[in-house]
Design goal:
Elements (H helix, E strand, L loop, with lengths): L1 H18 L3 H8 L3 H15 L1 H31 L2
């Protein structure tokens, strides 16, 4: 069972790195919740694969820095009817 969870964490990290995607998109792709993705990447992944963790952390930090821009664009589209 533990190997399954660690493998899922590695698979999530690889998916996020390769596609430069968000936690929300990864959760949707794997059919799990966003909180599970966060827990896998922030708590489980550093223990089983440190180098992969550092790579995915860079992508997640970039997403965090850009999220206010994405939110503004979504609001803009909403009110413009796009």
């Amino acid at each position: 069972m533990r190997e399954n969870i660690e493998q899922r964490a590695c698979d999530l990290a690889v998916y996020i790195i390769e596609n430069q995607t968000t936690v929300r998109a990864a959760a949707k792709q794997f059919g799990i919740s966003k909180s599970t993705v966060h827990k896998d990447l922030s708590e489980r992944l550093p223990h089983c694969n440190r180098t992969l963790y550092l790579q995915v952390k860079a992508v997640l930090d970039q997403n965090k820095a850009e999220r206010h821009i994405r939110g503004g664009l979504a609001t803009r589209r909403k009110y413009r009817g796009e």
